[in-house]
Design a protein that fits this description.
This protein has 916 residues and is an alpha+beta fold. It has 31 helices and 25 strands. Strands 10, 11, 12, 13, 14, 15, 16, 17, 18, 19 and 20 form an 11-stranded mixed beta sheet that branches. α12 packs across α24.
């Protein structure tokens, strides 16, 4: 082509042409002002990058540092603390006000650091999507980062490359692309340069290569017509971005708990203040009591501990190859009741191998022993070179093929192409049929690409007698329908309907053994333009095995023991899906349930029950997966969806927990998911579910601990205020306890390893709040138990030991502090051993106890802190009273646990709904 002269308008970065697949390639190049023989100039690239930006997908709702920081203060607990601080400042209690503000800022800082690390943890995943491209610029070929491509760039591509932008092909040399991630079609699509219809969907635009797809064969050249979010990939990504995001259960429960705290705080403060004013008490004392109650009601440590517990769970999962995108998804995994999984690559290894060949008069098995493969028929070894029918069947598999194997000694290169076609080439290699050598003897003249409607593919090859050999492979039903005879050792014989029925039964038998089945056939032709699918000689059936992952069945058994159902949705036929489902334990041997989605949206209740009860869905499309997901969610299930393709992205977004494959998953799928598996292993999902359960159990334990402490503080302060006695604990002292005896033991509870039977119990009811009625009853009992011990210590100090008010308040303050500290040992399960349980085995609990004892002592013996908190040395008698009262509370708490163990009073372990 004659080089185009660059005009001034070139530097103005022309817009990409509309519907480039409808135009001739030369016209597209002219519209983009690029010479396909030289490419863009450096100046043109600079101008176009300025206009179109980098060739990357938009970071979906990527949170900035500022938004993360502001988000720390958008919760009811922060609002309550802010109100208490405002009240303190309004009545000139500056020290208390400043202390509350300091607590608020400290909470925000800790939460910010942890969430910032969580949000940025997904940055490493983006490296999985980075590719390079070979472009022609200023007449020179160069390799650049795919992010730097601009519209008008001339890209050279070959088999094995990932397509980095949308290209309009200008040349195509036996080019084929795997567009399954974009279109859902698993068979590679042949490419050409001729214009297509304007209304052609992406799957039928043969002259286009789309970003996110891969080349499986041949080579070609194309001009970039769209980059970044303007590509087909970007369009789908933007649809995912617009999809509504589901609130996770933990967020909903924490919000409900926070709203309850608001009303409880307002009612208590209003009641105490109102009664104090009506009783004629000093206004300053009334305000001091109100501030103390407000501070006592707010569990300041709750946001810190909840965030750290979730973050630690996220990091623990990352160590086990599950990268979590959202903190709250950690807990949601624990409430999962159903996992919707694909078969290929999730439950199986995605590694096809030919294991059986069924010919007209015998069955041939391929047996691998020490890396060497033998062809066996009734235990007798066969030589494919001396067996004409077997040799022809293997030759057809090699000829009618678009995959490519590396040289036998090359361990660094991986096979290129569809795993099924790779398996056919490997079977041919075991028989001594190398594709390059076979094509040298029988050069390819024409290829008829796989037609989804006819379910067959064919290639025409030169033959030694001047005729053409036609190699055909495809679905058994389709190939049988097009066949007129069947090959035997004695020669071809007619193929009548009765024998076709027998072959159809053989197909079902192979599929029932869990094999993917292909039919092989051939014929001769005089003209390459003849219809390849007529008058075929049927050679036989080829059974390919994709072995289940060895660790999948134990993982599924673990799920089922824990009440988590696993449903398999696959594109395979029913018999194959059923066999694999049985092999991995998805299907119940005694009562297999194969599902089928009716072709309508308005399902009856009976149809819904049948769909929800099915274990396997064969021939499932991405749309079917979305409908399945919604049906199960409507029935109250918490669904984890495992996917990898672009078409899975909306379902991953809709799922309660979207799980994407990190190795073979597309960039859009990984961005839409909550969890990304670095090892693409199903068992990693099960590990994540277990940790989700452990983490929720830890969260429930520390929330119960925190709330019982705060109920105790409220009752102690409220009863003292109503009774007109000195306040047993001052606002600043409450703040100190809430940041010391709350946070460190609660944090230790939040990072525990959990119980060993976490996956031996059914999942809890997804609608159950963090704290159910039985938990609130326990909180009330443990909180009420503090009252006699704390107020008793105050009164004994005042009246029995003759202490002044400040020293007596110090005694009651320390008594409350140690009661709260020992209360951590009351958090074991009632049926757990008294001395060796999940609490006493937790080293973080012991570390927190030692630390908090030291901090409580510092409130008396550190002069600056003692002055701020207004504490006095309690003396030997005071310490005896403090330890006696606080250890008495521990004994009372253990007695409550014993009552719960014996009678089940107050509820024991979380009541879980039965598995389905």
């Amino acid at each position: 082509m004659v080089q185009l002269r660059r005009s001034q308008s070139e530097d103005q970065a022309p817009a990409s042409p509309e519907a480039p697949w409808t135009r001739e390639a030369q016209k597209v190049c002219r519209a983009l002002r690029v010479d396909p023989n030289r490419g863009l100039s450096a100046q043109a690239v600079k101008e176009r990058r300025k206009r179109f930006g980098p060739n990357v997908l938009r970071r979906v709702k990527r949170r900035s540092v500022l938004s993360i920081a502001v988000g720390q203060f958008r919760n009811v607990i922060a609002a309550l603390l802010a109100a208490a601080a405002g009240l303190a400042f309004a009545f000139d209690q500056t020290v208390e006000g400043l202390a509350i503000v300091a607590v608020l800022l400290l909470n925000g800082l800790i939460g910010f650091v942890i969430e910032w690390r969580a949000v940025r943890s997904m940055e490493a995943l983006r490296a999985l999507g980075r590719t390079e491209a070979t472009v022609l610029r200023d007449g020179n070929l160069q390799t650049i980062a795919a992010d730097d491509l601009v519209p008008g760039d001339v890209v050279h591509a070959q088999a094995g490359d990932l397509v980095a932008a949308d290209l309009r092909l200008t040349e195509a040399n036996r080019l084929a692309a795997d567009e399954s991630a974009l279109t859902g079609e698993s068979v590679p699509v042949d490419k050409e340069t001729a214009p297509a219809d304007r209304d052609a969907p992406p799957a039928e635009r043969a002259n286009m290569l789309h970003k996110g797809t891969a080349l499986t064969r041949g080579s070609g050249t194309g001009v970039v017509v769209a980059t970044g979010m303007d590509t087909e990939l970007g369009r789908i990504a933007s649809l995912v971005e617009e999809a509504g995001e589901q609130d996770v259960p933990l967020q909903q429960r924490m919000d409900r708990l926070g709203r309850r705290l608001v009303w409880v705080t307002l009612l208590i403060v209003a009641a105490v203040a109102g009664l104090g004013v009506l009783g004629g008490r000093d206004l300053f004392l009334v305000v001091e009591s109100a501030i103390a109650l407000a501070v006592a009601t707010v569990p300041e440590g709750l946001p810190i501990v909840a965030t750290i517990a979730l973050a630690r769970g996220m990091w623990r999962m990352a160590e086990r190859n599950a990268l979590v995108n959202r903190l709250a998804a950690v807990e949601t995994l624990g409430s999962t009741t159903l996992i919707l999984a694909d078969k290929t690559g999730t439950l199986t290894e995605n590694r096809m191998r030919v294991v059986r060949l069924l010919l007209a008069d015998r069955e041939v098995r391929l047996d691998e022993d020490g890396g060497r493969v033998r062809f066996l028929s009734e235990s007798a070894s066969l030589d494919p070179a001396e067996d004409p029918v077997l040799g022809r069947a293997l030759e057809v598999g090699v000829l009618c093929n678009n995959a490519d194997l590396p040289d036998p000694g090359d361990r660094d290169q991986a096979p290129v192409g569809d795993p099924m076609e790779v398996a056919l080439l490997e079977a041919g290699r075991w028989a001594g049929l190398e594709r390059d050598a076979v094509l040298k003897d029988r050069p390819e003249v024409r290829e008829v690409a796989f037609d989804p409607r006819r379910k067959m593919m064919a290639t025409f090859h030169e033959h030694e007698d001047g005729e053409l050999c036609v190699a055909v492979k495809g679905a058994a039903e389709a190939v049988l329908e097009a066949s007129a005879r069947v090959a035997t050792a004695q020669g071809p014989r007619p193929l009548d309907e009765d024998e076709k029925d027998r072959w159809r039964e053989h197909n079902r038998s192979l599929a029932a053994d869990g094999l993917r089945v292909l039919a092989l056939a051939r014929r001769t032709a005089r003209d390459a333009q003849e219809d390849p699918y007529r008058d075929l000689t049927f050679l036989g059936l080829c059974g390919l095995h994709d072995p289940p992952r060895t660790a999948v069945q134990p993982a599924i058994d673990t799920c089922q023991a824990g009440g988590v159902r696993v449903v398999m949705a696959t594109g395979d036929q029913k018999e194959t899906a059923l066999r694999v489902g049985r092999a991995v334990g998805v299907v119940d041997e005694a009562n297999p349930k194969i599902g089928r989605l009716p072709d309508k949206d308005d399902l009856s209740e009976e149809e819904r029950r049948e769909v929800r009860g099915a274990q396997v869905f064969p021939r499932a499309t991405p749309e079917d997966k979305m409908r399945l997901l919604r049906l199960h969610q409507e029935s109250g299930e918490i669904v984890a969806m495992i996917g990898d393709g672009i078409n899975d992205a909306p379902a991953l977004k809709q799922a309660d927990v979207g799980v994407a494959m990190g190795r073979r998953g597309t960039q859009v799928a990984r961005q839409a998911a909550d969890v990304v598996l670095r090892d693409d292993a199903f068992e990693t999902v099960v590990t994540a579910v277990r940790w989700g359960r452990v983490i929720f159990g830890n969260i429930r334990r520390f929330v119960t601990y925190l709330m019982s402490i705060h109920v105790g503080e409220i009752l102690v302060v409220g009863l003292a205020a109503l009774g007109g006695t000195p306040l047993p604990i001052l606002p600043l002292q409450i703040l100190f306890l809430n940041l010391v005896t709350d946070v460190f033991p609660a944090l230790a509870l939040g990072v525990g390893e959990g119980e060993g039977d976490a996956m031996k119990r059914p999942p809890r009811d997804p609608q159950e709040p963090i704290l159910a009625g039985r938990h609130w009853r326990g909180i009330a009992v443990y909180g009420a138990l503090m009252v006699p011990f704390v107020l008793g210590a105050l009164f004994l100090g005042l009246w029995h030991l003759g202490m002044d008010e400040e020293r007596a308040v110090t005694v009651s303050f320390l008594t409350l502090g140690f009661c709260q500290l020992w209360h951590v040992f009351n958090q074991r399960e009632p049926r757990a051993p008294r001395l060796r349980n999940e609490i006493t085995r937790n080293p973080w609990v012991w570390a927190s106890v030692v630390l908090c004892v030291g901090l409580l002592l510092s409130t008396v013996y550190a002069p600056g802190l003692a002055g701020l908190l207004r504490t006095r040395h309690p003396g030997a008698a005071g310490w005896t009273l403090i330890l006696g009262a606080s250890l008495g509370y521990l004994a009372a708490g253990q007695a409550v646990l014993e009552v719960r163990r014996r009678l089940g009073w107050l509820g024991g372990r979380s009541q879980c709904r039965p598995g389905r």
